[in-house]
């Protein structure tokens, strides 16, 4: 399915979640890898529609089409994912061939959020990256832009970890899941009693 359908599907799910009992209208988003891309794009989309999102968790996100120029990609080249040619990669497929022959054009920022001209006034973000992930620097660049724009942003580097290590069972994964859960609880106001 090509852009913008996945984004609009995610928006529909977000709107439905707000109607669920117990949500009190507070909903956050979470995604890993391409899902992190989608969560970041949805956070921008919600901001532009003046809708509230409690928290966006981006786990090893791909937020640009230029990650293959990053140091992390070349440091961990043997761990790269996807084909060698961008023209047949997932990013180009998502944009329905947009990148082919479109040098010099910028993809829509809902599709690749690092292209956003303004990331101010976004909801709080929690961005995770793996030390040995070829997408590590892509997420870090986005985190830096968010911090520079004054967006509350939490950043976690999974030491000696690969892309989406949180899908692998283990103590480190369990701790990371606990931290993500605490971040949601904080933004949902479920930890306010601890301030007293």
Plain-language structure description:
- Strand 1, helix 2 (about 35-50) and strand 2 (about 55-60) form a beta-alpha-beta unit.
- By secondary structure, the protein is of the alpha/beta class.
- Helices cover about 35% and strands about 10% of the residues.
- Helix 1 packs across helix 2.
- The model has no long low-confidence stretch (mean pLDDT about 85).
- Strands 1-2-3-4 form a 4-stranded parallel beta sheet, with helices on one face.
- It is globular.
- It has helices spanning about 5-20, 35-50, 70-75, 90-95, 135-150, 170-185, and strands spanning about 30, 55-60, 125-130, 155-160.
- About 35% of the residues are buried.
Short description:
By secondary structure, the protein is of the alpha/beta class.
* Helical content band: 25-40%
Number of strands: 4
In the sheet with the most strands, the strands line up as 1-2-3-4
Number of helices: 6
The major β-sheet equals:
4 strands, parallel
The gross shape turns out to be globular
Distance between the termini: 48 Å
List keywords for this structure.
6 helices
Q: What is the topology?
A:
Elements: H1 5-18, E1 29-32, H2 34-48, E2 56-59, H3 71-75, H4 90-94, E3 125-130, H5 136-148, E4 153-158, H6 171-187
Helix pairs in contact: 1-2
């Amino acid at each position: 399915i090509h852009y913008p359908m996945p984004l609009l599907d995610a928006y529909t799910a977000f709107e439905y979640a707000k109607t669920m009992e117990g949500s009190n209208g507070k909903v956050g988003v979470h995604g890993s890898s391409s899902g992190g891309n989608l969560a970041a794009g949805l956070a921008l989309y919600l901001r532009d529609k003046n809708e509230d999102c409690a928290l966006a968790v981006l786990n090893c996100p791909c937020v640009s089409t230029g990650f293959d120029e990053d140091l992390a990609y070349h440091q961990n080249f043997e761990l790269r994912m996807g084909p060698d040619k961008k023209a047949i990669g997932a990013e180009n497929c998502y944009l329905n061939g947009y990148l082919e022959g479109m040098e010099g054009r910028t993809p829509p920022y809902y599709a690749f959020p690092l292209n956003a001209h303004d990331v101010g006034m976004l909801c709080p973000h929690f961005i995770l990256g793996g030390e040995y992930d070829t997408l590590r620097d892509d997420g870090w660049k986005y985190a830096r832009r968010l911090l520079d724009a004054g967006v509350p942003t939490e950043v976690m580097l999974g030491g000696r970890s690969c892309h989406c290590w949180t899908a692998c069972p283990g103590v480190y994964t369990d701790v990371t899941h606990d931290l993500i859960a605490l971040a949601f609880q904080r933004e949902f106001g479920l930890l306010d009693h601890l301030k007293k």
